[in-house]
Amino acid sequence: MKDKYNHFMKVRRIEYKIQRLKYRRTALESCLLPPAIRYDKDKVQVTPSDKVSEIVAEIDEIDRKILQIITQNARKPFKDVAEAVGISRAAVHQRVQKMFDNGIITGSGYTVNPKALGYNLCVYVGLTLEKGTMYNTVSEELEKIPEVVESRFTLGTYSMLIKLYARDDMHLMDLLSNKIQGIHGVANTETLTALDQRIHRTLPIK
């Protein structure tokens, strides 16, 4: 009986080591080849790295020139972009639309200073979830809070990192205590208040 028990424990230890090795390998691959995470109704799906490479491969030299111009000034007329790049205005429009459709350009529009609307605090909150599988459920609840403007699924200390704006300390306390910490699946929160922003830019187009 004792021999069977020892054999069982030995097998369990080997299984545990194998699981740890698999976890470390997955974590290392995630760091070396960061995937694109997207929502799904039932689970978090990860776009393979080769799919990300396909998107990058679709950008040619003309697309890069267009991106260099419009990321610096999104209001620049397509007529001026066409003259700078050396193609027709219709071709610029078609290329920009294609980059929207392929997810290369993810948005456009005006940026409003939050302080002009009375939101004086910019806060980052690290969320620790009870289970990683609760990510979608928690994300859906966070979307119902208009002050939350950004969220990320992360590796490391937190399960998620969100960005929000609050009018003052009392407003922040209400958001944390009565809304975010009350979401089913959120086990713990850690708040980081931003005092100043010096860098805000897009990635260089080369």
Task: Outline the structure in words.
There is one protein chain. By secondary structure, the protein is α+β, with helices and mostly antiparallel strands. It is built from 7 helices and 6 strands; from the N terminus they run αββααααβαββαβ. The strands form 2 sheets. Strands 4-5-3-6 form a 4-stranded antiparallel β-sheet. A two-stranded antiparallel sheet has the order 1-2. The radius of gyration is 23 Å and the shape is extended. Residues 26-47 have low confidence and may be disordered.
Summarize the entry for a quick read:
This protein is of the alpha+beta class. The protein has helices at 2-32, 49-57, 61-72, 78-85, 89-101, 135-142, 169-180, and strands spanning 36-38, 45-47, 121-129, 148-153, 160-166, 186-194.
List the helices and strands and how they pair.
Blueprint: H1 2-32, E1 36-38, E2 45-47, H2 49-57, H3 61-72, H4 78-85, H5 89-101, E3 121-129, H6 135-142, E4 148-153, E5 160-166, H7 169-180, E6 186-194
Antiparallel strand pairs: 1-2, 3-5, 3-6, 4-5
Helix pairs in contact: 4-5
- CA(first)-CA(last) distance: 68 Å
Uncertain spans = 26-47
Q: From N to C, what is the helix and strand string?
A: HEEHHHHEHEEHE
Helix content: 40-55%
Query: Describe the biggest sheet?
Result: 4 strands, antiparallel
How does the overall form come out from the CA principal axes? extended
What is the β-strand count? 6
Structural class: alpha+beta
> How confident is the prediction overall: mean pLDDT?
81
- What percent of residues are in strands? 15-25%
Order of adjacent strands in the largest pleated sheet: 4-5-3-6
Radius of gyration: 23 Å
| Count of helical regions | 7
